Amino acid sequence: MDAQEVVSAAPKIRVRGLGKVFGEPPAEVRALDNVSLDVLQNEFVTLVGASGCGKSTLLRIIGGLEYHTSGELLADGKPVSGPGADRAMVFQHYSLYPWLRVLGNIKFSRRLGVNRRHITSADVEVAEGRADALLRLMGLSACHNAYPNQLSGGMQQRVAIARALMNRPAILLMDEPFGALDAQTREVMHDLILHVFRLERSTIVFVTHDVEEAIYLGQRVVLMAPRPGRIDTIYQVPFGAERNQDLKHTPEFLRMKNEILGRIRQTSGMETDTEMLQQLSRTTQD
Amino acid sequence: MNSAAHRPGIWSIRGPISQRRYWILAAIGLITPILAWWLVASTGWVEKVFMPSPGAVWDRTLLWATEDNLLQDTGISVYRVTMGWLLSAVIAMPLGMLIGTFRPVQAVLEPLTDFIRYMPAVAFIPLVMLWIGIDEGSKIAIIFIGTFFQMVLMVAEDVRRVPMQQIEAAQTMGATRAEILQLVLLPSAKPALVDTMRITMGWAWTYLVVAELVAANSGLGYAILKAQRFLQTDKIFAGIILIGLIGLLTDQMFRFLHRKAFPWMHKKS
Question: Hey, where are the domains in chain B?
Answer without folding.
Answer: 74-214+253-266
